[in-house]
Amino acid sequence: MTDKKLKWGILGAARVNERLLPAIIEAPGSQLVAIASRRDGAAKATLEKYAPQGFDCSSVQCYDNLLALIEDPNVEAVYCPMANNEHVTWAMHAINSGKHVLIEKPMALTVEDIEAIEAAAINNNVKVMEGFMYRFHPQHARVHEIVVSGLIGDVLSVRASYSFLMRPARMYRIANGVESGGGAMWDIGPYAIHSLRWCFGLSNAAQNYKPLEPVSVVAHAKFNEAGADIVTSGVLDFGADAEGRARLSARVNPSMKSSVLKVGSNVMRPGYSRMTCR
Amino acid sequence: MISWALEDGKYAEERFAPSNHFNLEIEHFTDCVLNDKPPYLTFEDAKANCRAIELALQSALTGRMIAF
C-alpha cells in the first residue's frame, strides 16, 4: 500500500451527501478536495452541514459551477450524485477530463448510455463504478458464504422490498416521469433488481456466482400525474423454478430490508439493517 | 442480521456489528484507483441491471409480460 491519497471532488449538493461526504473525508486513502453545485452557495453549505465535526472545511474548494470542478487539476476522482437523467452527461464530462468516477445508481437510464460511459472509461484509462453501497456491507459476504456452502439449497425464490416515505424534501424523486429517471423504479428499483440478480447468481457455481439474468418480467405500477411510478411490483422469471419479486413503494416508511430468500422449503432472511452513520 | 430456518426446524441467526457501507464503498473504489484493481461492480452488471429496469417499466406501462 502507498501513503498516497486519492483526491475526490463531489459533483452536486444532493442529500445523499449526508452519508457520502463524511465517508470520503473519513475513508483511509481518500481526501475531499472539492465540491460543486449549480446553486450559488449550495456547495459550501452542503460541506459545512455534513462534514464531520472538527474537519477543516477551508481545505475544500467550493464551486458554484460544475464544470469548474471537473476542470480542477487537483481533482482525481469524482463522486456523481446528480439527478438520474444527468448521470451520463456529467460522468462523460468527468471521464473525458481524465477523472475516475463513482456514479450513483442508476449509472444511466439506457444500456446505450452505459456503453458510451464504458467506452469513454476505456479510452481515458480511468476507473468507473456504479454506486451500490449496500453491497459493501459485510452481511453480503456472509450471505454469499452461506448460500454457496449449500446449507439452504438452491435459491428458488427471492423477494426484495424497498420503500421510502414521500416527504417534501424527497418529492424531487417523483417529480418527473419514468422517461426522465423519476419514480420508485429508477430510485429504489435498482437496489431491488440488483439484489434479485445477485441472489440467484449465488446458485450459479458454474458461472463463478456472477449475477443471473431474468428471462421475463411482469410489473404493475401506479403512476402519479408526472408519470413517476409510486407503488410498483414486479415478478421476474429467472428460469426453471426460480422467481424473483420486487416491491417498491414511495408510500411507506423507509426500509432497506431486502431479500427474503426462500430456498426450497427453507427460508433465509438477510435483514439489511440500517447502517450507522455517525 | 441474517437468519435462516432449515427443513428440520433448526433456526439460526447472526447479528453483525454496525458497519458503515458508505465508507466501505469509498474505501473499495479508492483502493481500485490507487492500486489499479478492477472495481467489484462491473459495467456488465450495470448494463444488465439497467436492461432489467427498462423492461420492468415497459411491462408496467403496457400491462404486458416482457421477455428479455
Task: Please describe what this structure looks like.
- The complex is a heterodimer of chains A (278) and B (68).
- Chain A has helices spanning 17-26, 42-50, 66-70, 87-96, 111-124, 138-148, 184-187, 189-201; strands at residues 6-11, 30-36, 61-63, 77-80, 100-104, 128-131, 157-165, 216-223, 229-237, 243-249, 251-255, 260-263, 266-270.
- Chain A has eight helices and 13 strands.
- Helices cover 27% and strands 27% of the residues of chain A.
- In chain A, the strands form two sheets. In chain A, strands 7, 8, 9, 10, 11, 12 and 13 form a seven-stranded mixed beta sheet that branches.
- Chain A has two domains: 6-131, 3-Layer(aba) Sandwich (Rossmann fold); 137-268, Dihydrodipicolinate Reductase, domain 2, CATH 3.30.360.
- Chain A has 278 residues and is of the alpha/beta class.
- By secondary structure, chain B is α+β, with helices and mostly antiparallel strands.
- Chain B has one domain.
- A two-stranded antiparallel ribbon of chain B has the order 1-2.
- Chain B is flat.
- The model of chain B has no long low-confidence stretch (mean pLDDT 92).
- Classes of the chains: A alpha/beta (278), B alpha+beta (68).
- Strand 8 (216-223) of chain A pairs antiparallel with strand 3 of chain B.
